[in-house]
Design goal:
This protein has ten helices and two strands; from the N terminus they run H-E-E-H-H-H-H-H-H-H-H-H. The chain is mostly helical. Strand 1 and strand 2 form a beta hairpin.
């Protein structure tokens, strides 16, 4: 009998955190998770007013599925033992993003980057968006989806490096629909404008968010906690809204 066949037929099962893992069910569970995320992406895009409800419900559902599939809290980056490490890394990420945003706002040349028409809001609405809608509807859901559940699923049949690459790439693709909204808010895609400009915005957004996903993945890996990546994620989005509020006040005063 062929030796290569024997090696593949009787090779030991891959191991995850010292435990043997049956590869085929792990791959199937990952595929189901990715399919569910694709459906949720469309739902959140078509029902923006229900973003918080969808995010909270989907978060609970994804965690239930992950636990039922055998993933531990540690494998999901939600172990109580890693809370302190996650908070330290997360607060550090918030501080770093805050400094970058502060410098960007202070320089007239880069101040325009904060002028997102979607967030030209009253102060109360901006605070609600930054402190409620984004943390629950965006950060909580996306961190559990990509750096907790999907990460844990992928790690059962992939190396850490591949897990970072795949989860980050999918995180980038997740932002295709929001990037179309961004382009529309800035007048792209309207009559007389180039569709190439919209394509560039979409491509740039996917690449930028994929890179951000890789940084978030590294924070999650180093800290062992999703709190670290969640801190960076909230700072990027939530502080962006608050700094945008200030930027609009500056240019309209």
């Amino acid at each position: 009998m062929n030796r290569r066949f024997l090696r593949s037929r009787y090779a030991p099962a891959p191991r995850y955190n010292g435990m043997a893992v049956d590869r085929q069910p792990a791959v199937v569970a990952t595929a189901v998770t990715i399919t569910a995320l694709a459906v949720l992406n469309v739902m959140k895009h078509t029902m923006p007013s229900a973003s918080v409800v969808i995010g909270a419900t989907a978060t609970a559902g994804l965690l239930a599925v992950a636990r039922a599939s055998g993933l531990s809290w540690a494998q999901l980056g939600l172990s109580p033992d890693r809370v302190r490490h996650g908070l330290v890394w997360g607060l550090g990420a918030i501080g770093a993003v805050g400094v970058v945003y502060l410098v960007g706002l202070a320089i007239p040349l880069t101040r325009g980057a904060f002028l997102d028409a979607r967030y030209q809001l009253e102060a109360s609405d901006a605070l609600k968006t930054a402190l409620i809608v984004i943390p629950i509807g965006t950060v909580l859901f996306e961190e559990v989806a990509f750096r907790s559940v999907l990460w844990g699923m992928l790690k059962r049949h992939m190396s850490t490096a591949r897990t970072v690459v795949v989860s980050s790439a999918l995180f980038g693709l997740w932002h295709i629909l929001p990037s179309l909204d961004f382009a529309a808010a800035h007048g792209m895609g309207e009559k007389g404008t180039s569709t190439g400009a919209t394509a560039l915005v979409v491509l740039g957004t996917v690449l930028f968010t994929a890179a951000g996903g890789a940084v978030a993945g590294e924070l999650r890996r180093r800290s062992g906690s999703v709190l670290a990546s969640a801190g960076m994620h909230w700072a990027t989005n939530g502080l962006g809204v608050l700094f945008g509020l200030i930027a609009w006040r500056i240019v309209t005063s």
